[in-house]
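Cont'd.
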Amino acid sequence: MRKKPTQQRARILVDSLIDAAGEVVARDGLEALTTVRVAARAGVSVGSLYQYFDNKNTLVAALMDRVNGDLIAAVNRVAPQNIGTDPQAFARALLEAAFEVFEARQGLARELMRHWHRLDIARGLHRFEQHMLDLLRGYALAQLREHPVDPSPARAFILINSVVFTLLRYLSQPTPPLFTREQLIDELAAMAARLITAPR
Amino acid sequence: MRKKPTQQRARILVDSLIDAAGEVVARDGLEALTTVRVAARAGVSVGSLYQYFDNKNTLVAALMDRVNGDLIAAVNRVAPQNIGTDPQAFARALLEAAFEVFEARQGLARELMRHWHRLDIARGLHRFEQHMLDLLRGYALAQLREHPVDPSPARAFILINSVVFTLLRYLSQPTPPLFTREQLIDELAAMAARLITAPR
DNA sequence: CCCTATTGCGAATGTTTATTCGCATTCAAT
DNA sequence: ATTGAATGCGAATAAACATTCGCAATAGGG
């Protein structure tokens, strides 16, 4: 951020720019995100955008940060309530939460995640991955006796990426899918549970 | 393709354009693929490119077709030899084959697959998905007695996407990974086997 | 009320690229 | 050898955007 907003109106402006960016991405995709359009949608001028963001990527990064925050918040909300349940139920709860965030705001999170290879987005995904690893470790610790679980980096990596990208693909299908959302979640939860409880 | 090449030299030109496109993508990524650069690398002019491709996307689609063909060929080469083995060995063989293709040509297939959401690439991925579903059905049929397997669309979808995208992510990591390639393949093969043999 | 830092503006600039088109060259059939 | 079709050329065109910059408006402390 080139300059940090000190006045109230400036802070509002920055917020509304991020909001507008989210709206544009949700409606027409990340490719359609242009600085002029974002500014217009926020009801300000391009020049003002560059007052607070070094360049377009910084804006995208800020948007990603926000969406990532939503994702982590959603997961954090359900995890504590389910830390005492068996692995499949635990996985299911997290999955439902993630699913909801991916569908919220016309699929904003989904559209952003699609572009995980972009530098400004990759950081967010990595942070989310890290957070999920921590969560998994917490669960493993809580369930040491009842449901011994292996939170090795390899398994956590596989788990997170398998789930996230399968969800992404499912939600991005243009044609009506061959199976229901329920089926997908069931199978994914079962797979996750088997993965983390499988013997070494 | 605007016009189909009838003369020998034209067919060679088309081929060398696709080759060049692959080289550019492998070296500098899909973003760096410009028509002028491809033409230059192929030793021809942009005009000639447009003689045989309607637009840039058609060229990308042609490249994707070729890479997709490689992928399917690689899988077809190992599948018959392993159709009699247990699910984990079968999965492992296919995985190794896919891994190799993803690493070949400086990661050309990987770079293309990263952009699965692009229309010109999505078709290829979908065709590959379809092919893997067929393969899985063939395996299920061959192993009816020995290793009963469920090739339901939902499971096949999860299987393919989990494996492909986890591989992609693993191979795209900038930092040295926290676990070895062997570990990854082992875990993925085990996961795949558990997924398709799990009871309904 | 005054003054200066902050904020806001948006037309203009510069770059990057896909795509075209009129002309030149080569092929291959007769 | 002739000729029409196929091929090849690459400078020119046009559209899309990110980013800048000189100027205008506003805030809020003194």
